[in-house]
């Protein structure tokens, strides 16, 4: 079984990556719905440029790779806030509850506020005096289990809703993921398919779901978890149904399991630049707490998004 699992992992990931552009049926840039789902959740992962598929090991894994919650010991909760572009805001929450040898359960929330806009008409192009709001919402239930001491699998079912002025769309989506760990410098491999679902109807037109497929790798060139110095380097090869292929690179440094510094870069996009982040882990009142923040450079096009996350292990 220990031989068959990595073979299946490699072959399935390679086939999915090879044929994912074919599944996309052409250039869909700007034509998919529910775009708020593609905004990265969690300051830790986004501080690493989104290169988190193989690294995922906390409650925020529910956004990146549901297999990652199998690594969580005990109840863990994560809250995240993102000040997004042009006065838009994203809030997210996740909680992982262990079920012993039967794996872990996870529950997630994602809420997006597009802000308030003024209603205009051909006759009143400077505004009618009325305003409207747009919003997005996703609620998920996940399950993950370590099938062996090296291989983990997870899946998440999500109910999603997007409201655009007087129109709205709802439906269900699926996330699936897996991770494989070796004992060579903690080399990890990850795979995830996110936001997979049926086309959504807006007015009289159907638009595709913003599904995303990623293959990731991560390893620890220096130290290990709990050591004085611990460095993790990671990368993803990702195919976005919205805008094609991108590469994501990231690194995380922990000092004494207390202070973390992170950086990352997403190649294949002209809008985003480097990402930077930091974290602080504390043991207080018998609980482990972690505070994270991240900054992503959007050059001169927009104000840089800021992300803040708070995590506690109960």
Report the β-strand fraction as a percent range.
over 45%
Overall residue-averaged pLDDT value: 85
Largest sheet composition: 14 strands, antiparallel, barrel
Q: Write the element-wise H/E pattern from the N-terminal end onward.
A: HHHEEEEEEEEEEEEEEEE
Chain oligomer state = single chain
What is the number of independent domains? 1
Please work out how many helical segments DSSP would assign: 3
* Strand numbers in spatial order across the main sheet: 1-2-3-4-5-6-7-10-11-12-13-14-15-16
Query: How large, in whole angstroms, is the Cα Rg?
Result: 20 Å
CATH class, please?
Answer: Mainly Beta
Q: Write down the overall geometry.
A: globular
Structural class: mainly beta
CATH homology-level superfamily: Outer membrane protein transport protein (OMPP1/FadL/TodX)
* Low-confidence residue ranges: 18-27
Could you characterize the architecture of this molecule?
The protein has 314 residues and is mainly beta. The protein has one domain (4-313): Porin (Beta Barrel), CATH 2.40.160.60. It has helices spanning 4-24, 43-47, 61-64, and strands spanning 76-83, 89-98, 104-118, 131-146, 151-164, 167-181, 188-196, 200-202, 205-207, 212-222, 229-240, 244-255, 259-267, 274-284, 287-296, 306-313. The strands form 2 sheets. It has a 14-stranded antiparallel barrel. The chain has a two-stranded antiparallel sheet with strand order 8-9. A hairpin with a 6-residue loop joins strand 13 and strand 14 (274-284). It starts with a helix and ends with a strand.
């Amino acid at each position: 079984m220990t031989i068959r699992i990595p073979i299946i992992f490699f072959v399935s990931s390679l086939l999915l990556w090879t044929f994912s552009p074919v599944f996309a049926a052409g250039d869909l840039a700007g034509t998919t719905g529910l775009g708020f789902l593609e905004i990265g959740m969690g300051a830790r992962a986004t501080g690493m440029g989104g290169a988190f598929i193989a690294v995922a090991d906390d409650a925020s894994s529910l956004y990146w790779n549901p297999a990652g919650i199998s690594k969580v010991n005990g109840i863990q909760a994560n809250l995240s806030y993102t000040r997004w572009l042009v006065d838009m805001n994203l809030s997210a929450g996740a909680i992982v509850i262990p079920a012993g040898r039967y794996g872990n359960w996870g529950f997630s929330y994602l809420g997006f506020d597009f802000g308030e806009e003024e209603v205009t008409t051909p006759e009143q192009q400077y505004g009618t005096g009325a305003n409207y709001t747009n919003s997005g919402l996703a609620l998920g239930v996940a399950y993950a289990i370590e099938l062996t001491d090296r291989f983990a699998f997870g899946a998440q079912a999500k109910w999603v809703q997007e409201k655009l002025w007087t129109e709205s769309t709802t439906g269900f989506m699926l996330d699936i993921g897996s991770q494989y760990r070796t004992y060579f410098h903690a080399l990890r491999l990850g795979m995830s398919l996110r936001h997979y679902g049926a086309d959504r109807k807006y007015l009289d037109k159907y638009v595709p779901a913003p599904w995303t497929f990623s293959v990731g790798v991560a390893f620890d060139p220096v130290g290990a978890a709990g050591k004085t110095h611990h460095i993790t380097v990671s990368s993803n090869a990702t195919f976005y149904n919205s805008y094609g292929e991108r590469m994501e690179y990231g690194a995380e440094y922990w000092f004494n399991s207390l202070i973390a510094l992170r950086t990352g870069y997403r190649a294949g996009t002209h809008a985003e630049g480097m990402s930077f982040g930091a974290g602080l882990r504390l043991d207080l009142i018998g609980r482990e707490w972690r505070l994270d923040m991240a900054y992503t450079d959007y050059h001169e096009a927009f104000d840089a998004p800021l992300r803040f996350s708070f995590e506690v292990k109960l």
